[in-house]
Amino acid sequence: MDRRQFLKSAAVTGAIAAGAAIPGRGAQAQQTMLRFSTPEADPQQIKGWESIFADFKSAKKVSVQPEYGLWDDLVKKIAADLVAGTPPALIAGGSKPGFMIDLARRGLTIDLAKVVDEIGRDDFDAAALAQWQYKGQQVSIPYGQQWAVLWCRTDLFEEAGVKLPETWDDYRAAAEKIHKPDKGLYAAAFPAGRTWNTHIQSIAHIWSAGGYFFDEKLNVVLDSPETVRAIRYYTDMVKRFSPPDASSYGFREASAAYTTGKSATTFYWGRVLTHLYQQNPALLKVSQTVFIPRDKQYKFGAGHDEFTVMKGPNSAQAIELVKFMLSDPDQFYRLLAPVIAHVVPTRKSIVPKLQQHEWVRDNPRIVKTLIEPHNYGASDTFESRNHPFNYKMDAMISKNVLPDMVQRIVVGGDPVEKAVSAAHKTATDIAKDIKG
Amino acid sequence: MTVEAASPQETVATRVAGIGRTLIPDRWLGLVLLAPSAVVFLLLLIYPLLYGIWTSFHSVDILDLASGGGSFVGFDNYLWLLQNAQFWHALKTSTLYAGIVVTLQIVLGTAVALLLHQSFKGRAFVRGLVLFPYMMPVVAVILVWMLLYNALFGAINYILFSLGLISRIDAIAWLSQPDSAFAGVVLVSLWKYFPFVVVIVLARLQVIPQDLYEAARIDGAGAWSRFVDITLREIKDVLIVIALLRTIFMFNNFEVVFLLTHGGPMQATLTLPILVYETALDGDRAFGRGSAIAVVMFGLLMMTMMVYFRFLRREDRQ
Lengths: 436, 318
Hints:
heterodimer; A: alpha/beta; D-Maltodextrin-Binding Protein, domain 2; three-stranded antiparallel β-sheet; B: mainly alpha; two-stranded antiparallel sheet; 69% helix; disordered N terminus
């Protein structure tokens, strides 16, 4: 073959290959593929999502391409997708109002106020909706809410002759009696890893002691006596009563410590109920939940699972999918059923359906604190009713300000006051650079 | 076959025997054939590099990138970086991590290559088996090692406990203490990537002339002497190339460290790639500052590459 023949055949081969690789316009028009991103990705939840998407495809002829991620990485994933010009059409879960509202501020999301009206605004929890509003826009629709509780092994508490704890002092006193590391049993499982869970639990203790991360003008006020008191208690419980690897604990490890029987208590959300049914049903009969023990007051983080629709060519179909999931009580219930009692519906009319679930009926001692309304919730974006929307907290979470502070004490042996003061300085430096 | 005589106006390059005119003169053909790869190189390597340098001089949120937002801040991001204790800590950790891992990889990889160069039954199978860690997906490797390291259920503590070396109450939390976490990350990186060294060194060993060993034996050289004076001398150049390439790779490694420890505990395993990730994509999403760190990393690696190229030039001259 001479050069010309070679070039000719190469050109023909290339053209054929390119032709085969480029789908026809007709094929593209027939198939709408909706990208969907969520960190709610337990195996049962994945099955739930996929059965909903199969129904949606039958009803609306729209396919959904799910992408399952990690809670800690969702914001980074969405940000990277946006830069690449390929954001998902619909995001479920994430519990990051600061980030979502930042997206809305840039005009990247769809206002879902009309969708809420169509479904029935009165049926939604007004406070939950309010958390996801920005300048009159409904940036996201919270479909579920959740908060952590303290999971307790009642058999071990009875054996030690102590009651389930209500206060920090109760908890510490009970831990003294239950803790038996020589038998592989730890009284507590306070997370101290460089993780979001450590942030969530440690800030809840600061709130309980009456402290805040930011004041009402969004200045960092971490170096308060309340924070010192809370962190002294928290790190003491890590060092004295938690498993030796607690300083690498995030969500999974804190849950597994309890479900495997290694720790007598753990802070966790309702998901543990599902894990116990699947992994250790024997513990169900000896488990009970109470609110996270308090200092001055009960106060802990209340998060949401929410739907956010991104602006893009498939926004209309994404809105249809949101309506499909939230309007029909059966579909809505399928969002909650895989991890029952983990996510409490924000639509009041769905709650009775939740209460009919066999696991909920059979475990009143476990689900009571998980699904009944209370007034103890706070959030990173609204530390109190008097705080304005906090656009600075996301940075504190992702820069691990509180987990690093906890680790300095637990791992590095720093005095509490020194570690709190260092965290305050770090937070102040970070906040200085954040534009409103 | 008749050959048409070329007219005075036609150049030889535009005519090919029996075919007629060519579209591309010979003197351009090389450039034309290179063009596709040059375009790909420019688009996928040069453009991102220049874009990264450009953003390092801007204050820009990652969400503003798509809209071209951000403001020029001159050297502010670099000044911030120089005053940032976390950067210096991460630079030190990255250098230490890359240095230790590469040294251990070379020692272990060379030792295993020497072993696999010997004749024994099942050698081909063992040679295949050694590649196993290198072929496994990183995420799977990390999950397995996390289980091994687990303080309560991990096999490592179980073995130590069974041998009576530790008591149950003293279960070691391998990834929860700064020193052991760093050592744990080094061990996984060593295990995962040493087969690369084995493959390269083994290939080099197979082309060392056997005559050299026979002559040395006749001259009375012992095993150690033959290793130092023949084997090591012959593979020295390959080892230098491996050291340079592995240093660049390990200095840039993100996934092993991040998946195992997220840079903790107490930032003991916080390397520069993790710091770039946290700075550029997380929190305040300071993409400009993240780019500045990445540009400094690039500069450091360029210096390593210059050593590599100088070495290659010396090789060519020899």
